[in-house]
Records
---
Amino acid sequence: MNQFDFDASIDRRGTDSLKWDKYKDRRILPLWVADMDFPSPPAVMRALHARVDHGIFGYTLPPAQLRKVICRRMERKYHWKIAPEWIVFLPGLVTGLNVACRAVGAPGDTVMTFLPVYPPFLKAPGLSGRRLMEVALIKNREGNWVMDLDALKKALSPAIKLLLLCSPHNPTGRVYHRSELEALAELCRKNGTVICSDEIHCDLILEHGRNHLPTAAVNPQMAEHIITLMAPSKTYNIPGLGASFAVIAGADLRKRFQQTMEGIVPSVNILGFTAALAAYTRGEKWLQALIRYLRRNRDLVETEINTMPGLSMTHVEATYLAWIDCRGAGLENPAAFFESAGVGLSEGRDFGAPGFLRLNFACRRVTLKVCLEKMRQALEKNNQRRRSSSKSKT
Ligand SMILES: Cc1ncc(COP(=O)(O)O)c(C=O)c1O
């Protein structure tokens, strides 16, 4: 029997949930923003209860044990040796992206990223007075989204001081191969471009036989010029607690990053640190059970979406996000269309890809089945309507 019940029904309405309150007064099931509808691991909840029971919430230091735990975790999971002092705690990964944009280069420089991508990647450069340059991911012969390294090579210039990478990739769910990351790191090294590698989804590898590979671990010569961003937030469903970190091996780069944060970026809060430590030390069994559950949800989504008229999606190797190509369905506004059918999805345009939608399948399987059925019925009805209106015109 499964020790952890991901099918349990917990009502999130009325809890100030960003995901659920978007549709507060409407009958729309939310499969959009990337948090999960599952309670965090019991070990996290026990640790939080104990911390709250202490009753004093004064200023806090990062727990020394957490640094050690992170170092051990990186080595055990990813064969990546890091030193405790390379870790810089952050109250959010988006904060890390924005700090990276300000810390590297100067206003007027260019920041590069691949499209589609998690929307804050597209916003952060402009907010820091940098220009944004986008290079599109392409589909290879096997139908996987891959980096277009030739286009990247052509686009690289001395003005490009920073590349924002998302690995594993949100929204496509891609786990990059070692060869891709090695080639990317080498191109950036030669061009003098720092990489900020957002690896927030690193623990959510669904594909059997695939492992996460930190970008900073692939090319020792480049390691000093990489800012890695990670967090327990997606993995253990604690994003509302704001506990994340950067790992920066290069002393100069780390200093610039920390100077940029000074006086602006607050410390991680006590409960965030408490949850992070409990998750990383006592959350592994729960995580393995979660991955099994997510794999089955992924399989369901792929089977259903790929048989819906006009929709298709590529295989999700990591994350709990499905990237759906709706361009064949003849919908003017796909997000609004599915909202009116009762399903709230993320708009592809925000990721730099109009005509696509992102579906978050980290929810109870019954909810997912209901949503997929609503989507299929809406598409079928729409097709019938289109067929009968084209008949009446002829
Ligand atoms: C790639 C990526 N980076 C960062 C974040 C958000 O991180 P945070 O909530 O810690 O700012 C998300 C959330 O969906 C994400 O997918």
---
Amino acid sequence: MKFPPIYKDDSADLKLLKKMTIAVIGYGNQARAHVLNLMDSNIQAVVGLRENSPNKGKAESDGCRVCSIEDAIKISDIIALLIPDQEMSAAFTSYIAQYLRKGQYLLFAHGYNIHYGTVNPPEYVNVILAAPSGAGTELRKKYKEGSGIPGVFAVNQDPSGNSKEVLLAYSKAIGLTRIGMVETTFKEETETDLFGEQALLTGGIPKLIQSSYKVLLERKYNPAVAWLVCYYELKTIVDVFHKKGFEYLGKVISDTAEYGGITRGNLLVNESAEKELKAILSEIETGKFHKEWMQETQDGLPHLKSLRDKEALDPLEEIGKYMLEELFGEK
Ligand SMILES: NC(=O)c1ccc[n+]([C@@H]2O[C@H](COP(=O)([O-])OP(=O)(O)OC[C@H]3O[C@@H](n4cnc5c(N)ncnc54)[C@H](OP(=O)(O)O)[C@@H]3O)[C@@H](O)[C@H]2O)c1
């Protein structure tokens, strides 16, 4: 198989951004990391916030120049739209689209709204994506350590003809090319990102942890012992295979763990699990999940709110709070 190139610092030129101003809209998880990393890379950046934003004071005390969204767009060359995906369509139509000028770059950290057609920028604007493979807090932390996190990038509209170069320069300024980036499309980034969340990161793995704990609890095992096995030890195992792969994991665990893991893992995750994974992916690809999520946000998140209440009652939460406080003093 031929693997794609990885873009590192030497494929990007920060000089491209030296005469530019970057507007970062929002001051949440991603936005704070982007703007602080840009500023530390000596790139001119402003934060655009809506009136009465509760984050204005925080941005100012972090040393950021804060202005209205309208002013931020007017004075900038690149506009990084870093607000929640479900807010983006309405925000774009109400107070972003009318201020966009020819040749500006509209940058996203997730392809969702462009891919599903809920944000439609004019054709005279460049539309680009720099998606870090991780949370903003991690992006900022790693940058400050002189490192970064990997990510993906994509160009969707390129009337200026240099969007890829500008995008790589932006990615360098926030620390993504220090580790490496992969080129993708808005479609691929959106669909794989949603699939990764649902199948593993915020879906499959947490659900498997909760179910495993529940099974041990029902058979009257000590809850603290069950928590250590089902919840706490996961990080140790992930840390082992994360940098060196599953073959290496097999070498450092006991033969019993390796044999039991592969044979019983195959029983659990088999063709029927794969069928479900394919069904999850199909709902993303066909837009079924998107329609459901848009309806849910329009209705004021009734299902999400009731699911959150239910999750808070999951037996793992109670033991988790107790153990984290007793072991690590976490509140
Ligand atoms: N979170 C992650 O780990 C992560 C990882 C990769 C990519 N991304 C992507 O990064 C983007 C931003 O996500 P996020 O999690 O960083 O968002 P977030 O933390 O929830 O964003 C909060 C910020 O958005 C502003 N905001 C909310 N609704 C707004 C509206 N209608 N108009 C204007 N501003 C509004 C808030 O304004 P106020 O200050 O006024 O409250 C606040 O400053 C998304 O596209 C997401 O998919 C996120």
